[in-house]
Amino acid sequence: MGFPENLARLRRERGLTQAALAESLDVLPNQISIYESGKSEPSLGVLRQLALALSVSTDALVFGDDRLDEHPSLQLSFEATLLLDEDAQTTVQALLDAFLAAHRQRRGRGEGPRAKKGSAK
């Protein structure tokens, strides 16, 4: 799920209308509708206000709950790659892409996640 879907789901789960959420943020009521339709994205300041109003982290709002939270060691490994230099990050990305491509091949799904259109092997 993307940000628009997450926003709508979280708002509904809290029993808020678009107008009520907008009022708590001091924005126009149609702005929430615009965010939920994906026509526009909020500024960082509004994103923070939305997260606070919905009592969630900005990560949960933007990325949903299906992140790596259930796999903390995997999450820590991915976060640690941010400390690597650019060349090492490129190598890690290439290794991960190759692993995922091989996994998809074994499952009959074609190329990896970063495959360019029209570059089938």
Summarize the structure.
The protein contains 7 helices and no strands.
Describe the structure.
- The chain is 62% helix and 0% strand.
- The chain is elongated and about 45 Å long.
- It has two domains: 3-63, 434 Repressor (Amino-terminal Domain) (Orthogonal Bundle), CATH 1.10.260.40; 68-106.
- It has 121 residues and is mainly α.
- Helix 2 (18-25) crosses helix 3.
- It starts with a helix and ends in a 15-residue tail after the last helix.
- Extended strand count: 0
Distance between the termini: 30 Å
Round the Cα radius of gyration to an integer and report it.
Answer: 19 Å
Instruction: Work out the helicity level.
Output: 55-70%
- Write down the overall geometry: elongated
CATH class membership of the largest domain: Mainly Alpha
Q: CATH topology of the largest domain, which one?
A: 434 Repressor (Amino-terminal Domain)
Averaged pLDDT, please?
83
Largest sheet: none
Low-confidence stretches: 111-115, 117-121
Under the CATH scheme, the architecture of the largest domain is Orthogonal Bundle
Q: Which series of helices and strands comes N to C?
A: HHHHHHH
